[in-house]
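Example record

The entry below shows one chain as it appears in the dataset: sequence first, then structure tokens.
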Amino acid sequence: MQRNLSSTGSVDWFPDTGVNQHVTPDLATLTTSEPYLGNDNLYVGDGKGLPISHLGHTKIYTPHRSFTLSNVLHVPAFTKPPLFVQKFCLDNNVYFEFHPHVFYVKDLNTHEIFLTGQSKDGLYALTKSSVTSVPQAYWSPCTSTFADLWHRRLGHPTTRIFQLLISKNKIICNKKRLNFQCQSCPLRKSSRLSLGPTGHKTSAPLELIFSDIWGPAPLFSSDGYRYFVIFVDAYTKYVWYYSLVAKSDVYSIFHQFQTLVERQFSLKIKSVQTDWGGEYRKLSIFF
């Protein structure tokens, strides 16, 4: 989602920590204004005094909130309108974060990114074209640990894709080269031999059922399960899945499974193959 910079005028704003006033050369930028009747001038670096025409207020609008610029000086002779960083932060409860080629305006409490802009002609600029919103999760200093973490979170992208994200300022990273210590990537690229013949020959459903249990999961499901058991029919390749609270539940689950499939196919289960784990041994007397 884009958050475009918009105000009543067309002037870009240049965040500046060395000024003590917001200044604009375009009166149309101000939403409210009144003529300045004082005798003060705005003095610039070479000592020259520039006359002040109006004093007013304006806002910067985004889809989620607006930002106030109060006590803005209208100085027609000014060329690049500075945004007084310290006053902008106080008025809007935000802070600036400057990086070599980009800057962010963040909420003082939640650290959510509200505005972001890039450098323009050696200055940081808030423009309509450069201000966009980026998911908060992507804005973190890039370290080896960070790179490995986000390599996994982003679905194991290649180094080329990661460098593309960096070049587009989606990830802040000072490292020129990224080396991921990922064990999964080489494994998924490796080939494996196909399985040989098993010797099992079935001619009808339920002649042979394979079964195995997985778990425990590191977290409970929303229904409180940490295990599951599957039953696979060797002939049809149908798979039945059951969630388990504990491994010992496989005894009662198997009875449910047997009732279901024997009615479904109008046949009897003839044989069951498992790894003979402890949870299955309770079924031996039943078998």
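Notes for this example: The chain is about 20% helix and 25% strand. Residues 144-182 form one domain.
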